[in-house]
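Ex. 9. Protein: Impact N-terminal domain-containing protein.
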Amino acid sequence: MKYVQKEFSSVFEEKKSKFHAFLAPYSQFNEVMKRLKEEHPKARHFVYAYRYLNEFDQIIENSSDDGEPKGTSGKPCLNVMAGNELINTFVIVVRYFGGVKLGTGGLVRAYSDAVNSVINISKLQTYEKLEQRKLTCEYTDLSKLEYLISNQNINILNKEFDINIKLYLESTKEDFEIFEKDLPLNTKLEIKL
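Predicted structure tokens for Impact N-terminal domain-containing protein:
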């Protein structure tokens, strides 16, 4: 599965109609939709599709034809996203009508091509499920642990200093398993609740 970390856009033209496609992280959907409606007041349609993972790792998806004939725009956009295995991502296609009717097949192709054009110029990241862990250690082990962490694919989210030190870490399950093998005996790595 793949996702984008920032917004990308492209323009696709079909029989004088212009399709402005915007691909961005799902978390920005509402603000980008609002901005696009302000930036494109003369546009006819704001077709969208999105796919994201919920807290149970299920893919939630939705789309809207926004006034285009049913099934000719939102669903084709969603199908292109699914075919590219995009998650945690949305696409909005802003259409300016060019005066020539495209027909249902023409609309499906045009919206699909518009989404493909923006995906082709986007920088896609590979999705990996991240977990958070809490590592408790002695002060004397901190520098060794920070060295081990810097050589792994692990991020330190936070540090708490008390009787012991607590490091809050984020990485994949596989990277944590590799990391655990190198830990000193008196350190404790647990799943953060």
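Check your answer against this statement. The longest helix spans residues 103-121.
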